[in-house]
Structure formats: C-alpha cells, structure tokens
Inverse folding.
C-alpha cells in the first residue's frame, strides 16, 4: 500500500449501477464529499436492457442506457466524483474504512457496497469458449444489431428473457426460445408471455436445457437436451442470448460482511450491515425483488443512512465525548422511574461542581445508536466518566455518593460529599 496515492472522502460508494448512483445523489445533495467507483459501465446491469417499462415516470418506457445517463448526470450535478476502476480490497472495520484500487487507497468513515450482480451462465459444455465476443451474449442492447436477419437462440423464460426476446425479434429473422418448463409454462409475467406467444417471429422449444455449445472460432450450433426423453435438439445459430438470472458480486466482502446462503449481503431495512458506517444497497442485498425501482429505493435509504451516520459521529465526538472538561454521560430510560428520578440529582451534581464537569444525558430508547457508540450493551442507569474525550470509567451503580466519589478523582478541584 505504501506506493499508492491516498485520497479522503466522506462516503465511498462501490458500484455505479442504479443503487450506487441513487446513494450518490442523496449523499451529494447532502453536501458530503462522495466518490463512486465503477469498474465497467456507469449504469450497471440496467444498461444491458433495451427497454425499461416498469420504472415509474416513463409511461412509454425508456432505454436502460438513457435512464442511467440521467441518473449519472444528476449525481454529477450534486458534485459526486467518479473513478472508473476495479476495487480490489476493502478494510471496513473501525472508524476509518479503506477501499483499495490498483493505484489508490481511499479512506472514508462511510462505505456503501452497491456492487450488484452479474448474469448467470449455464455452465454447459464449451460455454467458456464462446462467451461474450464469440456468439454467447447476456446483453441484448449491446449485441442485438449483430443478429439482423439471422436466427437467434434465447435461453430462459423469465421477464428479462422474454422481454429481451421480443426486442431481438425486431432485428432477427427468428427468435428461438429454450424454455425449461413444459408448454405453456414460463417464468415471466402473463403480459410478457401473451405478447411472446403472439409474436410470429418467436418459436419455443419446451422442456429443454443447454447440453453443449459447438463451433470453432465462433459459435455455430447449440445442442439443447429434451429433459423428458433425453433427445438432443440441435439449433443452428451463431448468436445465443442467456437470460437465466444473476449471481451477486460479493467476492470483495466475503469474510468481511455477513453473507446469506446464496452469497448476498445481509442488511437491515435501513441498509445497515453489521459494521457501523458500512451500508449495502441494490441487487447485492439479500432480498426478494431485484429491479431498478428497488435498487433506487435501497440507494436512497443507504444515502440517508450515510448522512445520518456522519452527522451523528460528529455530534457524538463533539458534544457527548467532548474534550473541554471532564464529562459525566448518563444513560437513562424515560419509561423507567428509578433511572428517570436520578436526572434532577445529576443536574444538581453538575451545579455543585461549578462548571468543572459537563453532564450529557442520553435516552436509551430514542438515542439507541448513541448507546451503541458507547461501546457496550448499555442498560438504563449506566453512567460514563470521560477525560479528554475518552471514557475512563463505566458506572453501573448510579447513586449520588458513588458518582461524586468518582468525579472527585478526575476534576481539578474536588468537592465535599454531603449525603
Ligand atoms: C437483461 C436485463 C434486463 C433487465 N430488465 C429490467 C427491467 O426491465 N426493469 C427493471 O426494473 N430491472 C431490470 N433489470 C434488473 C436491473 O438492471 C437491476 O435490478 C439493477 O441494475 C440493479 O442495480 P444495482 O445498482 O444494485 O446493481 P448493478 O446494476 O448490477 O450495478 C452494480 C455495479 O457495480 C459494479 N461493480 C461490481 N463490483 C465492483 C468492484 N469490485 N469495483 C467497482 N465496481 C464494481 C458493476 O460493474 C456494476 O456496474 C434487468 C437486468 C438485466 C440484466
């Protein structure tokens, strides 16, 4: 790390898809110094789709690329910075997090993981030989034009597969769709299914999965296998589009953050991970609907969470831990009578010490995250003594005499203890 340059931000967002861009818009607008790091295209998976018809505000639909261009513009208009590079490593524990790329180490108190997912591939024989540039694609927007007047094969029957298949039918002579289910079952919505079945250019090969991809330099044939009778159905095409779901891009945080069984990052509804100051949003999260609209919602929550976390950290350090004088922090519960009844006693103690001590009172229920920052599972009626911004004593027994005895040990001018 020694040879790398170092840069400092309030928030570093890893991933510039819809979730990362939305988090960026919120952070930028809150005037936080915000960086988005993106390794391929700003816009993420949404740029893979020719038309988005279910994102509110665009009744005639909009191309994924155009929608993402607008997100990007909006983030930049709020001062968000972008770096096009791959994040290699993260250190997310502690107050200052580190995000490392090939050349630079970025430090920030908040990191937002928005690394999304990547399209799943079939794993069938010879697939690797033809992936992306040699006949197998996962992006209709990118590769549709090359299919003009040719037959193409689409693998899958979910919404993405069927909608992209319909889009491809504008270019291709014929769109053959391999569906794993028995006729007429598909995994897409009824609307998409009816439109596909009514499309004269689309043909369905039911009960099939890919057995192998064949060709030399370039794809020439896809062998499908009929799951009912084992028969091999050869499809002579040089373009095959796979739309069979996604896998999370979570390798970066493996062993760093808690992942679900399917390797998605686990967060709460506020997009917080188990590490303070670390949020995750969008398709990378364990959740049941992965769409642009849900990525945007997650990004908004993460952006607001980042802003609150930073404001609260500043408040905690400046006001609660403060360095000006010895401090007495008292955690109470407004619904617990004994802990509430001690409040006037503490105010009187503060008065008796004539400006030598600063009292801060925290309600355990309304300021739960401040309690967490005090570093322990704090019960009502816990007091902390601070000197120079550091906690020097934790008192679980809070009565007038004990507190004054402890304060006398840390103030310059001790006072007489009366009962
Ligand atoms: C073909 C297709 C059609 C779709 N159609 C629709 C639709 O019609 N409507 C709809 O709502 N949704 C649709 N979706 C889903 C939608 O695109 C996703 O739900 C959405 O893009 C998720 O956003 P995200 O920001 O969470 O993740 P992503 O869009 O996956 O963005 C994550 C970004 O993080 C970057 N990244 C990952 N790792 C790193 C790293 N280590 N360093 C730096 N950057 C990194 C990636 O390059 C990527 O750009 C479609 C998806 C596909 C593939």
């Amino acid at each position: 790390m020694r040879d790398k340059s170092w840069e400092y931000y309030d928030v570093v967002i890893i991933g510039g898809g819809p979730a990362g861009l939305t988090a960026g818009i919120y952070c930028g607008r809150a005037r936080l110094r915000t960086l988005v790091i993106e390794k391929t295209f700003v816009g993420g998976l949404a740029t893979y789709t020719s038309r988005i018809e279910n994102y509110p505000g665009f009744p005639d639909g909009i191309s994924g690329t155009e929608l993402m261009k607008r997100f990007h513009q909006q983030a930049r208009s709020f001062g968000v910075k972008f770096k096009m590079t791959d994040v290699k490593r993260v250190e997310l524990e502690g107050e200052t997090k580190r995000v490392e790329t090939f050349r630079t180490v970025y430090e920030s108190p908040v990191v937002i993981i928005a690394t999304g997912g990547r399209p799943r591939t079939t794993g069938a024989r010879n697939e690797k030989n033809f992936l992306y540039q040699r006949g197998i694609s996962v992006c209709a927007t990118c590769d549709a034009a090359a299919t003009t007047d040719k037959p193409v094969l689409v693998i899958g029957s979910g919404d993405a597969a069927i909608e992209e298949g319909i889009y491809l039918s504008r270019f291709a002579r014929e769109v053959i769709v391999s569906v794993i289910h028995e006729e007429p079952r598909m995994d897409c919505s009824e609307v998409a299914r009816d439109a596909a079945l009514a499309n004269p250019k689309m043909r369905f090969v039911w009960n099939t999965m890919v057995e192998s991809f064949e060709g030399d330099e370039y794809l020439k044939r896809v062998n499908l296998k009929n799951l009912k009778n084992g028969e091999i159905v050869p499809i002579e095409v040089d373009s095959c589009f796979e739309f069979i779901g996604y896998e999370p891009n979570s390798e970066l945080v493996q062993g760093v953050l808690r992942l679900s069984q399917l390797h998605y990052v686990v967060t709460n509804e506020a997009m917080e991970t188990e590490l303070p100051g670390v949020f995750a949003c969008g398709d990378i999260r364990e959740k049941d609907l992965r769409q642009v609209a849900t990525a945007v919602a997650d990004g908004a929550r993460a952006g607001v969470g980042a802003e609150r976390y930073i404001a609260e950290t500043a408040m905690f350090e400046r006001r609660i831990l403060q360095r000006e004088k010895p401090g007495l922090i008292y955690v109470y519960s407004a619904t617990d009578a004994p802990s509430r009844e001690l409040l006037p006693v503490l105010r009187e103690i503060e008065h008796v010490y004539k400006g030598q001590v600063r009292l801060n009172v925290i309600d355990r229920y309304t300021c739960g995250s401040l309690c967490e920052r005090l570093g322990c599972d704090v019960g009502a009626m816990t007091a902390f003594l601070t000197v120079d911004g550091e906690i020097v004593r934790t008192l679980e027994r809070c009565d007038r005499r004990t507190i004054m005895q402890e304060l006398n040990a840390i103030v310059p001018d001790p006072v007489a203890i009366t009962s």
